[in-house]
Amino acid sequence: MINDQKTATKVLEDNKKQQIKHVAIFASGAGSNAKKIIERFENSTRVKIDLIVCNKPGAGVLQIAEAANIQTLIIGKKVFSDTGYLDELKNYAIDFIILAGFLWKIPSALINAYPWKIINIHPALLPSYGGKGMYGNAVHEAVLLAKEKQSGITVHYVDDKYDHGRIIFQKACEVVENETVESLAQKVHELEHEYYPKQIENLLDTLL
Ligand code: GRF
Question: Which H or E element spans position 62?
Fold first, then answer.
């Protein structure tokens, strides 16, 4: 009996080890977060970054994808809103989606197809300083204008509202006197690079 249990546990563990999670990163900017995520999983036997989805031809992230030999999909707004490019994602057997600097609202076609399997990173401590139009320097400007003593990053699930889904992780940084938009942006980016890949790995571990 004990032996049977041991065997069953071992088989389950072996199965888990063999499962590969196929991941798409949606990014339309410079792609510094995408790069860190790609690096984190480049030698992984359990997680494969198969696809970069981008709505901006010429975005920096496309060069990062090319250098890493990752396929790219350039999307248009109308088709994205209507279908979420679900067929294309299914063709790549994508089972998890990471947003890293992707500004379009995720359509319900994708939210429904990937429940609790789409995450985003926001460059502030949600629920403050989120919502439509709150991206890039606009976020840091608002934080400084409000004389906040801290800002930071938020990793969260994606739902049908901007920057709204359940929070997974937050990390704060200090806003010092004489802080500028640029210095705060840099601090926040450093936090993102340090923590987003780790959080993704933790989350995927629980799914594997
Ligand atoms: C990051 O600051 C992230 O929080 C936000 O978009 C930015 C993307 O930066 N969602 P990068 O393209 O990864 O450098």
Answer: helix 60-67
